[in-house]
C-alpha cells in the first residue's frame, strides 16, 4: 500500500507539472499568434519606406510597431520557455498550433487576409488534436543536474541528429537562400524549423537548470549550462532573422502552417532522440499522441487552404515587358487585334503591371 501510495503521489505530481506546462503553452500561443500580426504590419510599414526584410533590408528595426510585435513575441516565448521546465517537448511544442488559430482570426480582421467559413473546421481540428495530445502526453521525469542533460545531448544518436541539422541549415542559408529564398518558401521556413528544433532542446536544458537552481541545487557552476545558453541564443537570433524574411516575402497564411508542421515534427523527433520521451509508454498512448498531432496538422492545412493569398505588388513597377504581348482594342464596335508580325521589344517600358496583359 505504501508503494502504491508513493507511485500515486509521484504520478499526481507529474500530472500537475504537465497541466502547468499545458496552460503556459496555451498562453504562449496566444501571445505569439498576436505577435505574428503586429510584426507583419510593422514589416509592411518598413517595406513601404525602404528595403524590405525579404530583400535583405533591416529598416524594420526602426519601426516601433515591429518592436511591439517583438515584445509580444518575447512574452510568449518566455511563457513557452517556462512551459518546457514542467512538461515534455512532445506536449508543449504541438500546442503551438493554437497560435495559428489566433493569427488566422486576427489576419482576417486586420490584414485583410480572408478566412473562409471552412477555416472554422480547421480551427476545430486544431483544438481537438491539441486536446488529444494533452490527455495522452508522457509524464517526464526532470533530470537532477545539467550533467545528466549534457550526457543526453552528447549521446551518439543525438550528436548525429545535431550534425545533420547544422549541415542542412548551412546548406539552406549559404546555397539555397541567395538563389531560391525569394521564390521557395521551404528555404526560409526550413532554416527556422531545423534550427528551431535545436533551440528547443537547448532552451529546455537551460530551463531545467534554472528550475533546479531555484529549488536550491545550484547549476551555474557547470560549464555545460553556459554552452546550452550560448547555443540557444545563437539559434534564436538565426530563427528571428529568417522568420522575418519568410513573413515579409510570403503570406502569413502560408508561413504559419508550414512553419508549424516542419518545426513541430523536427522538435518531436529531436526530443524523442535526446530525452527518450516515449520510452516506457504504452503503444496506445503513443498512437493517440501521433493521431492528435496529425489532427492538428490537418487543421493547419485546412486553415491554409481556405485563406486567400497575398495580393503583392512588384517592388519595381517600371519593369520590362515580355518580348511579345497579345492585345486587342475595342472601340466604336470595331475590334483590332495584333498581327502576327507585331511585337514589342524588351526595351519597352511601362508603368502598368505585367499581369494586366495576357
Verbal overview:
This protein has helices spanning 2-49, 64-86, 89-92, 97-110, 118-135, 146-153, 156-180, 185-214, 223-249, 252-274, 283-305, and strands spanning 319-320, 328-331, 334-337, 349-350. The N and C termini lie far apart (81 Å). Helix 2 (64-86) packs across helix 8. It folds into two domains: 8-139, no CATH class; 141-276. It has eleven helices and four strands; from the N terminus they run H-H-H-H-H-H-H-H-H-H-H-E-E-E-E. A hairpin with a 2-residue loop joins strand 2 (328-331) and strand 3 (334-337). The protein has a two-stranded antiparallel ribbon. A two-stranded antiparallel ribbon has the order 2-3. With 358 residues, the protein is mostly helical. Belongs to the NIPA (TC 2.A.7) family. InterPro entries: EmrE-like, Mg_trans_NIPA. Pfam families: Mg_trans_NIPA (PF05653). GO terms for molecular function: magnesium ion transmembrane transporter activity. Acts as a Mg(2+) transporter. Can also transport other divalent cations such as Fe(2+), Sr(2+), Ba(2+), Mn(2+) and Co(2+) but to a much less extent than Mg(2+).
Distance between the termini: 81 Å
**Quaternary organisation:** single chain
The parts where pLDDT drops under 50 for at least 5 residues are 312-323, 325-330, 344-358
Average pLDDT works out at 79
| Class by alpha and beta content | mainly alpha
Number of strands: 4
Could you say how many structural domains there are in total? Answer: 2
Helix content: 55-70%
User: How much is the radius of gyration in Å?
Assistant: 25 Å
Elements, N to C (H/E): HHHHHHHHHHHEEEE
Question: What strand line-up does the widest sheet have?
Answer: 1-4
Tally the helices. 11
Largest sheet: 2 strands, antiparallel
Percent strand: under 5%
The gross shape turns out to be globular
Amino acid at each position: 500500500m505504501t508503494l502504491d501510495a508513493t507511485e500515486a503521489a509521484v504520478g499526481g505530481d507529474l500530472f500537475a507539472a504537465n497541466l502547468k506546462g499545458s496552460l503556459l503553452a496555451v498562453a504562449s500561443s496566444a501571445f505569439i499568434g498576436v505577435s505574428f500580426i503586429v510584426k507583419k504590419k510593422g514589416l509592411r510599414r518598413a517595406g513601404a519606406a525602404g528595403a524590405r526584410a525579404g530583400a535583405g533590408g533591416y529598416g524594420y528595426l526602426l519601426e516601433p510597431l515591429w518592436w511591439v510585435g517583438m515584445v509580444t513575441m518575447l512574452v510568449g516565448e518566455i511563457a513557452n520557455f517556462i512551459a518546457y521546465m514542467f512538461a515534455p517537448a512532445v506536449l508543449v511544442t504541438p500546442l503551438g498550433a493554437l497560435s495559428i488559430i489566433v493569427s488566422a482570426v486576427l489576419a482576417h480582421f486586420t490584414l485583410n487576409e480572408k478566412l473562409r467559413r471552412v477555416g472554422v473546421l480547421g480551427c476545430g481540428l486544431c483544438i481537438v488534436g491539441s486536446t488529444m495530445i494533452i490527455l495522452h502526453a508522457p509524464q517526464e521525469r526532470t533530470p537532477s543536474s545539467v550533467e545528466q542533460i549534457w550526457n543526453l545531448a552528447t549521446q551518439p544518436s543525438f550528436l548525429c541528429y545535431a550534425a545533420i541539422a547544422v549541415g542542412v541549415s548551412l546548406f539552406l542559408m549559404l546555397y539555397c537562400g541567395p538563389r531560391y529564398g525569394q521564390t521557395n518558401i521551404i528555404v526560409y521556413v526550413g532554416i527556422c524549423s531545423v534550427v528551431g528544433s535545436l533551440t528547443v532542446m537547448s532552451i529546455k536544458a537551460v530551463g531545467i537548470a534554472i528550475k533546479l537552481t531555484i529549488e536550491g541545487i545550484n547549476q551555474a557552476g557547470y560549464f555545460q549550462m553556459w554552452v546550452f545558453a550560448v547555443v540557444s541564443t545563437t539559434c534564436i537570433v538565426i530563427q528571428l532573422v529568417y522568420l522575418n524574411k519568410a513573413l515579409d516575402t510570403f503570406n502569413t497564411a502560408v508561413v504559419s502552417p508550414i512553419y508549424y508542421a516542419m518545426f513541430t515534427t523536427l522538435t518531436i523527433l529531436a526530443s524523442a532522440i535526446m530525452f527518450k520521451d516515449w520510452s516506457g509508454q504504452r503503444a496506445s498512448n503513443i498512437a493517440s499522441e501521433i493521431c492528435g498531432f496529425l489532427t492538428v496538422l490537418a487543421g493547419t492545412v485546412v486553415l491554409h487552404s481556405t485563406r486567400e493569398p497575398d495580393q503583392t505588388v512588384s517592388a519595381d513597377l517600371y519593369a520590362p515587358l515580355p518580348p511579345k504581348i497579345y492585345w486587342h482594342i475595342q472601340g466604336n464596335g470595331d475590334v483590332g487585334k495584333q498581327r502576327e508580325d507585331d511585337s514589342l521589344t524588351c526595351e519597352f517600358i511601362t508603368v502598368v503591371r505585367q499581369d494586366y496583359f495576357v
